[in-house]
């Protein structure tokens, strides 16, 4: 405030001197100074704010005051300055959000076949299947006989008639002729077990009027013998099989009684498919 009063005192002195130029009147007008000071104290001055911003400095008087010259007209505003340089680059910004997923690429090539894996555990048993269709009746493929000798053979070179029936359900063995008649084509098994007594035996198994199997047993006194033979034969429908003594008629020692049997047996083993 003291600086402001001094500055105002100088300003009034300058102005009065410039107008009147007399010391006598200057002293009279100087009396008005307290009024001006009072006015400055009453008026709200924004200059008071400036006192808080800058330290109080005693401003120099304008030039020419001492010489008593009048101040010049304020000059024109100066030109705009040159634009300043570009500022420094700013700090990198924050990381942005993750973008959307791209489109699926094309299908790749087929890879190589992998190594064969270990065999898995055994599975559970499956469901039982349906019952099969009934097969062909087995009865039509049955053919079997088993017969025995009841009387001593006396006539050679004719079929031996076995009349003791063990089995002949299909009647394929004819007891009146002593021949087996084939009704089912297929493979047959034939066998005979005979007792030999008092004479030698030469026995043949015949198939269609031809001897195919031979048995010869020589008899010795008081020495009962047994002889046998067996064979597999394929027969066609109508073929006949029987036993017959061959030779000149002196070899028909086949024998049978209540404790000795001579038997002839045959049966179908496999029938032909077609
Ligand atoms: Ca013998
Ligand atoms: Ca014997």
Task: Calculate the mean pLDDT score and round it.
Answer: 82
Q: Which range does the strand content fall in?
A: 25-35%
Structural class: alpha+beta
How far the N terminus sits from the C terminus, by CA atoms, comes to 149 Å
Helix and strand run: HHHHEEEEEEEEEE
Low-confidence spans = 45-55
| Main sheet properties | 10 strands, antiparallel
CATH level-1 class of the domain at 141-271? Mainly Beta
What is the fold-level CATH name, i.e. the topology of the domain at 141-271? Jelly Rolls
Give me the CATH architecture of the domain at 141-271, please: Sandwich
Bound molecules: calcium ion
The number of strands is 10
* Count of separate DSSP helical elements: 4
Percent helix range:
10-25%
Subcellular location: Secreted
GO cellular component, one term: cell surface
Biased composition (Basic and acidic residues): 85-100
Region (Disordered): 79-131
Account of the 3D structure:
By secondary structure, the protein is an alpha+beta fold. Among the domains are: 52 residues, no CATH class; 131 residues, Sandwich (Jelly Rolls). Strands 1, 2, 3, 4, 5, 6, 7, 8, 9 and 10 form a ten-stranded antiparallel β-sheet that branches. A hairpin with a 3-residue loop joins β5 and β6. It is rod-shaped. About 4% of the residues have low confidence. The structure holds calcium ion (2 copies). The site of one calcium ion has 4 residues, from loops. This is Adiponectin, C1Q and collagen domain containing.
